[in-house]
Amino acid sequence: MKKGHFISFEGPDGSGKTTISSLVSQALKKRGFDVVYTREPGGIRISEMIRDLILDPKNVEMDAKTEALLYAAGRRQHLVEKIIPNIDAGRIVLSDRFVDSSLAYQGVGREIGIKEVFDINMFAIEGYMPELTIYLDIDPQVGLDRIGSRDFKDRLDQEDISFHERVSQGYELVKEKYQERLKIFDGNRSIEDLTSEITEYIIEWITAHEA
Ligand code: TMP
Q1: DSSP bridge partners of 38
Q2: Ligand 1 lined by 159 (C-beta under 6 Å)
Q3: What is the distance between the alpha carbons of residues 83 and 51, in angstroms, rounded to a whole number?
Q4: Local confidence band at 150 (pLDDT 50, 70, 90 cut-offs)
Q5: Could you tell me how far CA 77 lies from the centroid of its own chain?
Q6: Do 100 and 184 touch, CB atoms closer than 8 A?
Q7: Model confidence over 101-126: pLDDT tens digits?
């Protein structure tokens, strides 16, 4: 049986991460890879319910730590119900976001502290981390301008520029902490170029990790 792998995609809101990760997943499938594409928050029924709860713009009174715990809870269920079983079955799991998002958004964006958010997540995931993370880099203002034209903005999209700037600073710390796992791409480039470059990068990475 082929070896399974766990790859995540990260980046600020408006970085193009969702579009590009889904195109990369389709491209890998066309090239014959057994890929499971998923996302956080969400990915399975219970975690999608938690997603709705967190992102509902009506939930303005939600406390920052409640939010962090809900993301971690959704992640736990997603991991045990979907990510681990698929990796164990030899598939490539591509997840649009994973724990780095919590470190950047809740740890730094919400000012809870990276260490504190890391600790509650370690309880949830018991050290199970992606082997490779594709990071799409973009200036927070460019990201906000891109999401500005969306018809529906969730509770986090509606946060102001200072929150999104802190999230970017949070990602800078994540990049430093996990240099070996993160591969950074410039999110200002075209969707087509990024999709093909990232697809090729992942194929090379999988080939190198085949043994
Ligand atoms: P999405 O826009 O990538 O679907 O993610 C929804 C929002 O949730 C986005 O603003 C980022 C945020 N988020 C966190 O704040 N912490 C997390 O752990 C995750 C997975 C997402």
Answers
A1: 95
A2: no
A3: 17
A4: confident
A5: 16
A6: no
A7: 999 999 999 999 999 999 999 999 99
Buried b (16+ CB within 10 A) or exposed e, 36-75: bbbbbbbbbeebeebbebbbeeeeeeeeeeebbbbbbbbb
pLDDT, tens digit, 9 for 90 and up, residues 2-33: 889 999 999 999 999 999 999 999 999 999 99
> Does residue 156 line the site of ligand 1, with CB under 6 A?
yes
| Contacting residues for 26 by C-beta, under 8 A, at least 6 apart | none
What pLDDT band is residue 211 in, cutting at 50, 70 and 90? Answer: low
Tell me the three state secondary structure of residue 57. coil
Ligand 1 pocket, residue 143 CB under 6 Å: no
Please name the residue that has the structure tokens 């170029």: 193
The alpha-carbon radius of gyration of the chain (Å, integer) is: 16
Distance CA 44, CA 48 (A): 6
Cβ-contact 185, 197 below 8 angstroms: yes
